[in-house]
Amino acid sequence: MTNRERDEVSGTETTGHEWDGLKELDTPLPRWWLFIFYATIVAAIIYWVLMPAWPIGNGYTKGILGWSDRANVAADVQGLRSARAPMFERLATATSTDIAGDPELQQFARAAGASVFGDYCATCHGAGGAGAPGFPVLADDVWIWGGAMSDIERTLQVGIRSDHPDTRMSLMPAFGSGILSAQQIGDVTEYVISISAANNRLEANTIAAGRGAAVYQEQCGVCHGATGAGDRTLGAPSLVDDVWLYGGSRAEIRRQIELGRGGVMPAWGERFDAGTLRALAYYVHDLGGGEADAPPPAPAAAPVEPSQTTPAPLR
Amino acid sequence: MSKVTLIPKPAAQNGELAVDAAPVNSKSYRELYKKREQIYPKLAHGVFRNLKWAAMIVLLAIYYVTPWLRWDRGAGRVDQAVLVDFEHSRFYFFFIELWPQEVYYITGLLILGAFGIFLSSAMFGRVWCGYACPQTVWTDLFIYVERLFEGDRNARMRLDKAPLSLEKVGRKAGKHIVWLMIAAATGGAWVFYFADAPTLFRELFTGTASTSAYLFVGILTFTTYALAGTMREQVCTYMCPWPRIQAAMIDKDALSVTYRADRGEPRSPHKKNDTWEGRGDCIDCHQCVAVCPQGIDIRDGDQLECINCALCIDACDAVMDKVGRPRGLIAYDSYANQQRRQSGQHASYRLIRPRTIIYGVLLAIVGAVMLYGLSTRDTLDLNVIRDRSPPFVRLADGSIRNDYVVKIMNMTDRPRQVAITIAGLTAARLQAPNVSAEGEIVVTAQADRVSAVRLHVIAPNTLSSGSHDLTFTLRDVETGDLAASPSAFLAGGEQ
Predict the structure, then answer these.
(1) Other residues' Cβ atoms within 10 Å of the Cβ of residue A165
(2) Nearest residue, CB atoms, B390 vs list A139, A311, A313
(3) Is B386 on the interface with A (CB under 8 A)?
(4) In this complex, how many residue pairs, one in chain A and one in chain B, have their CB atoms less than 8 Å apart?
(5) Does one domain contain both B116 and B147?
(6) Is the pTM of this model over 0.80?
């Protein structure tokens, strides 16, 4: 070792570096710091032996403890599933009256339903069942295929215009493709507006509506009913309210008559077990517009009323 | 190496009064990187020592006994007088029970504490440091134990220098065992504030308490042992921010423990029959240094290390009595007085001055506001949470529905029937799932809990689009207690 220079004032060796006459002291590290540093080196070596550490080619050193985050997560998920299984089983066999009298089951169904709804349904139907043009609002009290819990569950199982053999199927013709003339479509549009609650804001042309009445009875009344109240057994929406699947402006109503659009809802019966389906049905039914499980089938052409919602007592 | 100026040994002619004590922690003595030097505070006798014993006993008693006090809150309820219940998020303090949303009372408490310490500092300087700080109190207790096992200053110094012997080991071991026991009791008492004390006490000794309970007992045992046993004055000198903040709290009229240099200087040893003419009253006996737990010399003036424990006052007064000079060579004094004396004026104490009056008034106002808040505290409250998605729902008949979750807080011990009503939105009606009553919805709010109820508000389609104000009101069906919360009703434009 070369002759190290000592600083007079502090008695500490210098590093030999000098800047404009200033010299850097080579103050030794505190002992405790040094020992901790050595301890971390030892700890690192122990860690390499015990735990997964080094990448090698396609794999990595596994460590003798066999720790795996992937396996831990899988085990946790499995644990959660088996913990929830009894509640799902109870739900699968519960009727809507059973659920109504069981706050614990309600809470579970609501939470489980909300979670599944968020994952699979909200993409189209919107968070909280807010709906979007072409995708029905689920929070309101307007139902195309019925709003009782059993109806909702059935829709979930078989879907709408899906590939399920028993799927709910309704087809509105595209009247604009040669069935009706543009003039006739305009007349029918005015007539539909005139019988609906939308008349208040759109004010149908009464002369055109008068012409359209005949066309309506000939072409539309079969499914939508003579009064336009719709028919749930056929999946024909009510035309008397002011809720429109494809938009409620004059142009949008006309466009739907021209195009006869109908969306597709997948059948979820194969994807989910019975408990999950029931939870989902409960959640949708509970959003605010659910109807009582009346003796099916619901009377066709009955005016849709703002109905009492399902129980949601204190949680 | 920087040179350390050693304070010269006191001359022998001071007789038994003088001690060979060096202020090892004073700035002139302490090097930057020097290892801690053990301080051997000598036992002082006098007014302030007695005051400190009294403060120590009262404060320790409060700390150790409080969790064991019971307070009847009715059958099935928590009966511990002071309890921080994290599990059920409640804070109990005798007749006060706070819920998490009332945590602002803690802010009030902190403000009270701050003004309290401002006021005491402005009047009496660092009385908190000298008498009430846990570091001071436990250090005092640990030094007391040390003295029991190893004797007073001189005996302790001799013992530390003595070669290893059975007696030395015995005394040292005894001291450390008692220290650890006190430390463990301190940690133990701490956890009792967070759980039912008798239950937890049993659990701790039967090994069935939670891991976190043992962990916190362990942490506090360690900190008590380390801070009060081995670190002591270093906590005040190096770790505590208060000595630094202190400067802002103290003005020239605040009292602090002061060596009256005008009276004491020039200091020199004094023999029995020497004259007192032409010299100061300080006989340089170093008794004030010997009793100092902080290892400083008060005669160097105000310094950050000084905790104003006033033990040097006791030591000096005893010496003054013996040499026949008036007491108060070291005394509570203010900076203003020192200046007055220098210019030949009379000393005067101004404890009541604008600054202390303002602190006192603020203290009283905050205290009164808190007392008023606590005495008129609501026991019924509600939170209304409006569903954001969908923002509103248009129903078949054209009316518009908004959905809400109303959380009802019942801060009493019994379940209550409460009626929920809405106001402020003409023609709107309140609807709850499964309840057919119109106008008001009556639900049961469970005792001492938050209950949630989902509600729909339906307004006719004549409502203009935009946000409308709406008030939810709770009324206790029996007592008529009211609580209200504003919310909003959103109506959409035309389709």
Answers:
(1) 7
(2) A139
(3) no
(4) 101
(5) yes
(6) no
